[in-house]
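Researcher: Last one for today. Full complex below.
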Amino acid sequence: MASKFTRSNSTGWLMAGPAAALMGLFIVLPFLFAIGLSFTNQRLISPNPTQFVGLSNYSQLLGVGLLTLEPERDDAGEILRDEDGATSYPALRGYTRNNPDFPQLDGMREWFSFSLGESRTYVLARDVVFAKAVVNTIIFVLVVAPIQGGLALVLALLINQKLRGINVFRAIYFMPVVVSIVVVSLLWRFIYDGQSGLLNNLLGALTFGAFPRIDWLGNPSTALGAIIAMSIWQAVGFHMVIWLSGLQTISPSLYEAAAIEGASKWQTFRYVTWPGLRNTAVLVLIVITMQAFALFAQIDVMTSGGPLDSTQTIVFQAVERGYGKQDISGGSTISVILFVFVLAISLLQRWLTREKK
Amino acid sequence: MTSLRLLATSIAITTAMSSAAFAQTTLTMWYHGAGNEVESNIVNQIISDFNASQSDWVVEMQSFPQAAYNDSVVAGALAGNLPDILDVDGPVMPNWAWSGYMQPLQIDEAKIANYLPGTKGVWNDQLYSIGLWDAAISLVTRQSYLDELGLRTPTLAEPWTGEEFMDALAKAKESGDFDYALDLGTAWTGEWYPYAFSPFLQSFGGDIIDRSTYTTAEGVLNGDAAVEFGNWWQGLFNDGYAQATQDPADRDNGFNSGKYAFSWNGNWAALGTLDAYDDVLFLPAPDFGNGSKIGAASWQFGVSAASEHPEGASAFIEFALQDKYLAEFSNGIGLIPATASAAAMTENYKEGGPLAVFFDLSEAQALVRPVTPGYVVAAKVFEKALADIANGADVQDTLDSAVDEIDADIAKNDNYGF
Amino acid sequence: MAQISGDNHGLRLAVRYTVLGLIALIFIFPLVFMLMSSLKPDAQLLSDTRSLRAFLPVGDISLDNYFDAFRRAPVGLFIFNSVIVTGVTVALTLFICSAAAFAFVFIDWRGRDLVLTLILATLIVPFETIAIPLLLIASKLPWLGFDGLTYGWLNSYQVQIVPFIADGLTIFLFVQYFKDLPGELIEAARVEGASWWQVYRRVVMPLAGPVLATAAILKFLVMYNQYLWPLMVVQEERYRPVMVGLQYFFQLNRAWGEIMAYLSLITVPVLAFYLFLQRAFIASIASTGVKG
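Model: Here's the assembly. Have a good evening.
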């Protein structure tokens, strides 16, 4: 409702100006800078002048290729098999290194492959580590968002009781949120240790020694899961509190009505509680997703992307390339790709969760 | 009138004298010893001795934790904020010299004529850095272990062959007395990997970069010798002789508490082991066909390119090159002093001293890491390749992709000037 | 307030408390481990991890690790730096972001919607992705200080403070909160001739208690626990915050007892602060959570 009482250009700019200027200088400008750098071959420091290289950084990161190979056959036309009885295919190296017939595949490595009938199709990527980082990040987001959100809701329901001392429990459940993720990562390294970690000891004690000692962080199949569990542990208290506030805005009269009608606990939840939590659910989901994409500190402290790239993430790759290997242009390229990614996902989320009239 | 002139003259003289006293220039210095009391104390001692010994320069030191030191220098270079004197890890020096962070030293070359070759940082035929000590690695074990397992004691002239070494590991594993036969130190991620493990690669006949041209790694890092090394390396973990992931606490104390039969460790950890046991042996590296090799070159002092007082900085470094300081460092941190004369002054490296064998090892087997600005990236790539192979990745593929990455980096940087 | 009233039959009560208690154990055990380990010598610390002793103050306990930690690194300096950086940032953030949100919500000015959209768009940009270009920028910025005009902000307090004063999330929180304030109050004040600053100071800010607390607490947590940025931009010991100080303890021979002591030293104050204020803490986060 604009009137002379609300319109005031100079004051508006004066009050919002400092914030806008700060963000412009320290967020927008570096971001534009990063976009610019991604089109060059800039190093962190180098005596060589910077050159414009167009999209080569992007093709270096995102290049994929497809190759279908027939199995090797001997003279009679029979399929050769190797020692384990599996079909033997010609070595990929022959096609991807110095092969003049396949110049577009030069330097690519196998990302994954699958068999269709007798022949095998290989999906190649120019930068397999980055490809794995993208996949891991997506897995992390897809797993953490529902689990953390769901667990937080369960905890909120538990806490939402009139018990004496319930606030003590609420305080304890929130505590990990307050602790630095770096401290948390260091402590959990002890817990996950393969030899004498607390988790292995606990599982061994519970199963009377039947459970084998697992090197949680050193095993490619468990490392990402271990990081997921730890991240959820640290952050779930935060979202529990958000759910809690949502729960507490649901009118008690609705619950009374449900009780009068003899609704079971599950029916009460489904028809009274859940609809009232819709807005909260959207908020929780969006926040968790954004935080999950920025996964970095835990990886840096605990696994450095290993073992076998099972805990590589996009942000970790960006920092390692840009800062560790001094390749700022590569790091910036990854940052831009991440931004586009997250933008797409959040737009998708907004569209999916829009109010349907 | 006369008294006034006298007064004026005396004032003039006093001012002249005091300004001469204030003509001391401050030199800033960065050192990587934060959190490490022993090293910091010795460096501070050298600094105060230097400051007291002359009146032109005053050195002030800024201390950094070792883990963050290299990154700090890079960030400082970005800001144009480097000190006058800095110390640099040997293999990293070419990168910093090429990047323009450092300038050649202006010290009297005669003073370093007797220095171990690994302590001299030379790039483009110019001396950029000099170290007060060198580091060496050996295969640590106990005489009692060798006796129990029935193994020959290798000597510098006759080290174990690759087969003998594997046989020793197999026997250690069978005996069941140890958690693992070999402690490789896989817990120490970072520069340890290339420093400690590339000698094995070199002993097989491969290398991180082709040293004849320094422009590619093709053929040396993914050739037959390298693949043989890769398979051997993977075998160590597949066959259960060593751990691919290791608890840092095990690296620090494992051998000293009997968990391992053999430990591949540097002389900086030797003092602790000598305390734990009385029959410690420091064996030479096994020979896998191309001679026994161990790494060389440790932290060295240099002058930054932007320094406005390189003569002062060099004067300080030259001052530090005295045998007594070399000996103090060696006594404190257990590393090899750079000269034989200093070695004679130390507890551990004098004739018959417990660590004197490292001096011989260094002389006979040391091979510096590749001297190229591309080493910074190559080292990281190599470390990752080793870790991946240890975790079961395909050897040829991993080495191929390592070669690709190193080659791409070299090409991106116009061959680093080669 | 809708709460499910607890059933008071003895057994059911016991079951509820047990469930809650077990869950509480899960959330608290690493912190207990950290505190207990900080009191033990290294060898015992490591061997105790094999059993429940890890959580008990048994054996050779003492404060030695704490003394050693103080000797190895200037812990007091690091905590001091962190407190300064965090305190100043929080104070400035509250002022600048609330003023901006006030302008977005109550004042009509040209360009308002565009600027607000841009600011909210930055919520998507994770910090790590702009860290390196920001490093390059920060290394060239001018600063007018006690030494006159200097270039390059590395190794200072300002490099740890200024880039973080304005951020999209804080502005978003304030905007959401202000939107829910009764507009009539502001209209009434303006009709009576109050200037915008007076409306801000006298009418809106006194009502902003909960959101101020929320923003302060969230910002405090972010600034105090910062890891990547200080690692990149602060090398001189004078300005190091606690997280960078952690690196001092990771020398070649790690003293785990000292590390635990250091971790405890930097975590316990935050925990104590939190426990002391936890009611206000949680209430304020919750109150602004729903209006999303």
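Chain A touches chain C through 104 residues (CB under 8 Å). Chain A has two domains: 64-125, 129-326.
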